[in-house]
Amino acid sequence: MVLEMKRALEDLKKGADGAYRKIYDATYEEVYCKSFLITQEEKQALSLVEDFYAGVLKEIGEALKAEDQNLWFWQQYYKKIRREYQKLLSIQHKEAPGKAQNLAQILAALPLLHRVMLVMAYEDDFSAEQISAVLGLASEKIEGELEKLEKILPTLTQGQPQENAVWLAGWKTILAGADRQILGTVAADWVDVAYEKASAAAGVKEQPKKEDNFEYFVADVDLTEEKPKKKKAEPVIEEEDDEDEEEYSDEDNEDEEYDDDDEEYDDEDDEDDEDRYDWDLEDDGRKMIIIGAVVAVILCVVIGLGAMWFMGRNKSDSATSSQTEEQQEGEDAAADLVIKGDGDTADDAEPAEETDAEETEETEEAAPEEEEAEPEEPQTVTMKVNASSLNVRSEANTTSSVVTSLANGDTVEVLGDASQEWVQIRCTSKNNEEGYVKSEYLVAAE
């Protein structure tokens, strides 16, 4: 509402048509809801709305001079309530607490002055000093009365329907829920009528809306479809940054300062350019942050790979050095065997050669035995099918293809451990086809 009324007042300042109606459209719903909460009668609320706008539309020009236009508007409204207080008080009637059937009727159990203070404090956020300035009461008295209203709130909300329970947390939520209920039940035909009466009483004259007298018709003409013409591709001209190519030719101001490092221009006469440069600098900063993050990630990856390579190289060097030491120890041991004896004679060397020949023959004889060793076949257990029909799968799952099917009582050979959930079998009755089945469908053969 605040933004809409501000725009409407700007249109009024410019002398635009329809500005008064825009002010009315931006505020009439809240004015009606507050009037209904205070008066508790629809007719009285509508009469109060018409009288208020008849006066405020005359003085709306003063809102242009106010610092807070929204505060000025509602101060005028509550001043109207104060002027009409005795008239409104004479036609008021209170209801007993606990008989309210909706949120708006909760206020009916309160005196008129308390209703006004509640609406000012909890709907428009007026302070005790601001309420005191409008109603002419002491701020301490207003604070004390608001505290009493907080204490008696549980008593006033007794007997409310279950759907209203979410709004009963405090006076602020109760008033917000009451506004929703009021706008949902009131008829909408009074809006234009109330404005016409108020604007006529205020002497506001605005140009009426032009009626649309255009006659729509369909011409009885045979239309032939035309083939769409191919549009020539137009070259896209990329706009270069104004920051890089914009030239400053201000001959009258020779003392203009230019910073080559930051590229900041101080031009107090052109605020739009300053805003644009600020946005460009922010974009450049974001780009630099992204680029820096990417470079940091790349450096971390390179450092990690380098560390892994360096550690692997150290391991290989240590392994090579250990192998070299083992080879050196083997050579020293061989040398000890050769040198053993009184001197280097042929008789001393012959036993070593014979020993080497015997070891070579034993190694050659052992090699064929290792090559001839064949893998042992898995142990097989004969079992039979305990199901009306059993599918044999190519793999140990239910989604693989079916190799073959077995009937109840067919005998199979289980290859491997038969206690697993899925077991590999050989179908002796199906050309020894192999596959997988669940072990729960197999029983031991008698």
From TrEMBL:
InterPro entries noted in UniProt: ARM-type_fold, SH3-like_bac-type
Signal sequence, renumbered to the chain: none
Coiled coil: none
SH3b domain span: 380-446
Ranges where the record places region Disordered: 228-278, 315-381
Keyword set includes Membrane: yes
Keyword line: Membrane, Transmembrane, Transmembrane helix
Domain of life (superkingdom): Bacteria
Pfam families: SH3_3
Membrane-crossing segments per the record: 289-311
UniProt cross-references to Gene3D superfamilies, sorted A to Z: SH3 Domains (2.30.30.40)
Biased composition annotated in UniProt, kind: Acidic residues: 236-278, 344-377
Record's protein name: SH3 domain-containing protein
Species this chain originates from: Hominiventricola aquisgranensis
Record lineage: Bacteria, Bacillati, Bacillota, Clostridia, Lachnospirales
